[in-house]
């Protein structure tokens, strides 16, 4: 379960912490305020293997970064850390952090 998303430097988000609810989290705001970016990062950070379930079109639950974001070498960071996601896994006692980073493919 995701607990918190921290974006240090990605697109419109600078030093932003987003706490996520245990059951439901609502994301609302005006156009171009980062709602889709938040959903894209959360989606890209998780997947469900096909053996545990599939979409209604019989595909695996996962998102590829390139399907969600169109990179801009002018406006996007060239490389490096952009933040982290804190999550809790039932197999572990303490929350864990997954680092988020950007790299450009050559």
Structure summary:
The protein is built from two helices and six strands; from the N terminus they run ββαββαββ. It is of the alpha+beta class and 106 residues long.
Cα(first) to Cα(last) distance is 34 Å
The Rg value, from CA coordinates, equals: 15 Å
Q: What's the mean pLDDT score?
A: 82
Shape: globular
Number of strands: 6
**Spatial order of the strands in the main sheet?**
2-1-5-6
Helical amount: 10-25%
Please trace the helix and strand order, writing H or E for each element.
EEHEEHEE
Largest sheet: 4 strands, antiparallel
Taking pLDDT < 50 over at least 5 consecutive residues as the criterion, the unreliable ranges are none
| Number of helices in the DSSP assignment | 2
Supply the number of structural domains: 1
Domain Rad50/SbcC-type AAA: 4-39
Protein name: Rad50/SbcC-type AAA domain-containing protein
GO molecular function, one term: ATP hydrolysis activity
InterPro entries: P-loop_NTPase, Rad50/SbcC_AAA
């Amino acid at each position: 379960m995701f607990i918190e998303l921290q974006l240090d430097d990605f697109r419109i988000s600078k030093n932003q912490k987003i706490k996520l609810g245990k059951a439901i989290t609502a994301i609302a705001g005006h156009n171009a305020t980062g709602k889709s970016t938040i959903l894209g990062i959360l989606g890209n950070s998780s997947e469900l293997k096909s053996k545990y379930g599939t979409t209604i079109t019989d595909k695996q639950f996962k998102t590829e970064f390139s399907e969600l974001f169109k990179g801009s070498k002018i406006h996007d960071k060239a490389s490096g850390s952009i933040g982290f996601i804190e999550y809790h896994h039932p197999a572990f006692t303490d929350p864990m952090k997954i680092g988020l980073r950007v790299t450009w493919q050559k």
